[in-house]
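Could you help me review a protein record that somebody else here produced? This is what I was given.
***
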Amino acid sequence: MFHTLAVPVIAAPMAGGASTPELVAAVSEAGGFGFLAAGYITVEQLAEKIQRTSELTSKPFGVNLFVPGTRPTADISSYVQRVTAYADKVGAVPGEPRWDDDNYAAKLELVLALRVPVVSFTFGLPDADDVQRLKATGSTIVVTVTTPSEARQAKQIGADVLCVQGADAGAHRGTFTDDGISPGGGELYGTLAAIRLVLSAVDLPVIATGGLVTGADVAAVLAAGAVAAQLGTAFLGCPEAGTAAAHREALAEGGRRTALTRAFSGRPARGLVNRFLIENSPHAPAAYPNVHHLTKPVRATGDLEVMSLWAGTTYPLATAGPAAEIVRKINTELVEVVNSLASRFRRG
């Protein structure tokens, strides 16, 4: 499927509201491919989003599911106290630091029933039997991986395509397990290095993601062996995206660095540096999604210094504009890069 895209650009699934039916449809209509994010919403809301997307485009699109992990064992009582103090400052009440499975089983049954063309998984591996059930309905299975070891495991359970995430990616790392010690939850690879290492380990098609914004970025990962590039940050400034106003402003200003942190969710994620990230990252436990639920009301206040401002390292290169224009711009840049290289080597 991804080999035949008119434009080898995929709109990443961005949970929390950024991925909308309008964004997904616009990217798919422009010749790319869009993913809806199933994370953090109800089964009913997901069904509505799938229905709305189907009304906006006849092109295929995908749905991304969060694979639930095991219940964390870390003691988070001291972190609850820290977050409570922040909540008091911004007039919020901290959430209950609970574990849940994001209604995974019900969402899986929904995409099965609706025969969603592409189903992707992040944070772990789906059950091999569920993979076969999805394939029986015609779905293509994509698994997000960050290391060669994860790639091998994904192939064993029947993945059709791997989404290889490099360390420059914005938002959550897709690692299967979080070691609770290193900033990224495990070994970090740049996007190009991750592609090459994964391709040396398995013989599956790979989608590249992580710090990709321009046509030159897309050209680089295609040259490294990817069949397409998945972009998230590049689309956050689109009017079709559900990006919060303060988040848009911070991205447009472009003056903040990015960092990996567990402070907002208990799982490593990359975002723009603000006061909450600086002061709480050293104390944040590896306890997802407990910490996510704990901090959610604080982040929802709209205070720029306590929001989770997810962004990849190259976010200053992103431009605002309608999604279709972004796709066309990237494709034009891609063609220019390819032609320039071809011309250069023909002369040689």
Remarks:
- The radius of gyration is 19 Å.
- The chain has a mean pLDDT of 97.
- The first strand starts at residue 9 and ends at 11.
- The chain has twelve helices and eleven strands.
